[in-house]
Amino acid sequence: MARLIRMDSTGHSTLAEWTTEDAEAQERAVAAFRRQLDEGYYAVVTEGEGHARQVTELPLDAELVILRRPIAGG
Amino acid sequence: MSTAPALPETAAVHWRPRTDARRLRGRGRTWTLTTAAHTVPFIATAGGLFALEPLSFPVGLAALAHAWAIPELYARRGSNVVRPRPRAAAGAEEVALGLLGDLVGHDARELHARTGLVPERGALGVWLVAEAGALLVTPGGRRVFCWCVKVPEPGLPSGDRIAHLLLALRADEAGFATVANLAFSGAPWRLRRRMPPRARPALDAGIRMARVSSRSM
Predict the structure, then answer these.
(1) Residue contact A66–B163, C-beta within 8 A
(2) Inter-chain touch B167–A68, beta carbons under 8 Å
(3) Does the model's ipTM exceed the 0.85 cut?
(4) What pLDDT is stored for residue B1 in this prediction?
(5) Domain ranges in chain B?
(6) What is the pTM of this model?
C-alpha cells in the first residue's frame, strides 16, 4: 500500500493510500497531492538511504511520498 | 513523471551562486582571512604598545582579549545552529521520530538518539543535520561549516524539523548549501568547545566519517 504523508504539527498525517489496482484511490491521492502543492507544500520521494527526489506530480509507483514545507536560511 | 531539477527554495536566493566544492573552499578561505583581519590588528596593537611603553600592558591585555574573543564569538554563533529547540507535544514527537527513523539507517538513528544530530554523507562532505541548521565537515575533517537553515513553521516536532532538512539535503545538496546561511567556518576544535556537550560526540563522529571518506577517495 503506497502512502502520501504530510509532515505537520502532529508528527505526520496520512493524506492518501493507494494500490496499483485501485484507480479510485489513485485519483483521490492525486487530488490530495495537488491540493497540498497548491497550499505551498513540496513533495519528496525517498529512494533509499541518502537519496531523495523532489517531484511535482504524484509518482503512483512510489511506496512513500512525503510532503514538506519550504526551508529557508535562518 | 515530472522531477524538479533543483531545490525550489533556491529561487528565493537567486542572487547567490550555486554552491559547489570549489566555491565552498573559497568561502572557507575568505572566512579565515576575515577572522585574521579582525584579530591580527589587536595582536599587533598589543605588541606595539608593549614595545613602546611596557607600562601600557593593561591596554595591551584588553587588545589581546578582543583578539581572543572575536573568533570565540564566531564559533559560538556557529554552535547555535545545533542547539535544541523547544519540544512539541510528546505524542507528536514520537510520531515524528518514527518517520525520521524510517529515513535513516541504524547508526544514524543511534547517533541521533545520543546527540540530537543526524549524520549524512554527501558529495561536499559529512553533514550533521540538526533542528535548525546543519554542520558540514569537509573531506579530511579539518574544517567545519555551520549552516543556519530551518523550516519557518511553528509547532513542528523536532524529528520533523530534522526530516525536512534531511529530505531537502538529499534532494539537492548543492541547493541546500546555497539556501542555507553560513554562520561559521573554521577548525572543528574551535566549534566543538562551544557546542552543547550532548552534541559534541556527533561532531567527533562526523570528523571520523570525513577522514574515512577522504582516505577512500
Answers:
(1) yes
(2) yes
(3) yes
(4) 44
(5) 18-217
(6) 0.92
